[in-house]
Amino acid sequence: MKRIESSKIFRRFLISYLVILIIPMVSGFISYQVSLDTAEKYSIINSRQVLNQSKKILEQSIDEIDRFVLQLSLDRDLNFLLNKDASEKKRIISTLKQLDNKLSSYATTNEFLGDLYIYLKNSDLIVTPGSVYYRPYHFYENDNYTDMTMSEWKEAILNNERQIIPSKLYMQGETSTNVITYVQPLPMSNLSDHTGSIIIPIENRLLSNLIEGVEQQFNGWAFILDENHQLITANGIDKEKINPLKEKVINKEGPIYLENKTMLITEKSEKNDWLYVAGIPQKALIQEAAPIKYITWTVTGITFIIGLFIALFFAYRNSRPINNVIKTLKEYADPDVKNEYDFLHGNISKLISTNTDLQMQLTEQKPILKDAFLKQLLSGEITERNSNLHEFAKQADVNLSCNHGYVSILKVEGYEDMSSSEIYQELNAIRIVIKQESMKIFDNFYVATIQSDKLVYIFLDQEGDKVLKEEIEKMFTSLQNLFQEEYRVLLKIGLGHPFQSLSDISRSYNEAKHAIDFASFSNEKQGMYWYDAVMKETTVFHYPLEYEFRFLKNLKEGETLEAEQILHELLEENVDNRNLSADMHEQLISELKGTFFKALDQYAFRNDKTAEILRQKIRAISFEEGMKEIEGRLIEVLQLYCEFVNKNRRESNHSIVNAIKDYVHEHFSCTDLTIYMISEHLSRPEKYISQIFKEETGEYLYEYLEKIRMEEAMTLLTNSSKTINDIAELVGYNSAHSFRRAFKRIHNMTPNQFRKTSE
């Protein structure tokens, strides 16, 4: 019976764990479905972007051709030649030559214009870049359409309107290629009687390159149809397979799915009604989701198996102590219960209700805990280096959201040599009243008792030091006046320098103690004593730790001017503003020499001759010299030290820049090369190497990388016959298009134009 009862809790734990384990199975299935939908969605978006980009580039190219044709149609030489007949061929030779020169210059500016020619009907001439054909059949023997006779060709190019002839097989000598043909009858102002035409054959290869992104990114295919649904160009698909697809895509929007689950995406040009079609195979749609599917189900299966064993283990481990507690409680309580959890709830409630006095005692301990925390903060036992500082503060009900402020000590005068229970009770009452009255005036502080007649105030505030200082002085002045008039009690206040961090509180506290100790020996009945004012009236030299830390920091960073300023301030305060004895002067100089020795113990100086030279110069400083001479010697050591630090930094920067350049020269052909990869190789932050490279070379790192790539590209264009695509890949560009764009931006010409000029 006991076995059965104890196993109920085990089963409840196990079932709850198993329910949780089902969640990964469900989330795995949902993740897979979402990944499929997302992959398809982004494939559609990306393919549309590729088509839109291709459409944009092609439309821009056609627009450029239109602008070129319009400009050429207005040419004076061309219009002169259009009106000349065959009998005047010999008289127009010079004009033909001038027109030929113009066509040659046009042909080099745009790769689409490489094969353009002009047919002059009246004079029966054909003008091409570099040649003039006096007999058109000579031209057509070399450059002709395989499915058009010469008379059909003449009729096509003298059509009554601008047209683009769809893709046809075109012979150029012994070379055949598919071209679309741009035809513009002349003159453009006459719509019926044309005396010539500008004809521009455009290789399908140039158009096919624009839509090759679909094949590269998705392993798919693409084609373009003109406004009459004639094929312009295709990439990755045969012409025979395109005809059956025309009916599916014409006048239809949105993705279309074929029987083989290939997805068709269409984009229509608003300018010329051309239709851009892309086919994305299903394999490309789900290839990004496949790893997610594999990982999801693998992780889910492994998680379920491991989780099952863990569930068994934790169910046993968590149920066992509960069963033991129930077993123990049943020995002292009513064992006849139906539900173990109700049994635990009832008995534990009784235990809590019988221990309310314990809760009250814990509440009473909070002020003691707070006082102890504040004393540890003042003594420096707890600093910002403690990882659980804010957790301790929260337990002690102390808010440390601000990290700067002041520490002050309030002393009740006249109770130094008195000790009795009555005096202690009276001081306790005075402290309580002081705290209450302080809170009425200014409530942004914490207070702790360090002696029966002394209170320590820690002021924390977000306001500026000047504003906070005025508030503190106002509060203490009001307290002093109130207690003198109402209670005949005199108060003295000692205040330290402001602290700028929680770790600096102990320093400010020690300064406040110095100030209150000075106040104890003062003849004044009450007053407010700031550490700065107290130190000026003493014979102790002024060299706080914070000054030494700042001095060492500036030496380490090679900041000569900042370090000289700190040294000048120290000497001015101690020599000009204080009446120090000779011993105090000597101790001050010894402290300064000690600071320099601390700086020399750094790693950079350990094995360097400069360190020994500096040590000799420091040892040679003697108090017997005047303070001006001593200051000059200290500044000389300071400057030599900073000069050595800056020299080391420059050498280090130079070596880093050389390492960056070597790495760039070695890996510039990598398309994935980034500043992050360089920083990983050098084990330095990205921002650091970028800043160092800019400071040392005067140019940004990405500019230098682009320059190296362009230098190599120019070498390959000049000394090799590699294609633009191959060169783009060799010099580290993701595509020939991005390479051409970068090359033209830098050199104001395309790679093809550069290659021609360098021949």
Automatic annotation (TrEMBL):
Organism: Gracilibacillus orientalis
Keyword tags: DNA-binding, Membrane, Transcription, Transcription regulation, Transmembrane, Transmembrane helix
One Pfam family this sequence matches: GGDEF_2
Transmembrane region(s): 12-32, 294-316
One GO molecular-function entry: sequence-specific DNA binding
Domain of life: Bacteria
Residue ranges occupied by any HTH araC/xylS-type domain in the UniProt entry: 658-757
Entry keyword annotation includes Cell inner membrane: no
Protein name in UniProt: AraC-type DNA-binding protein
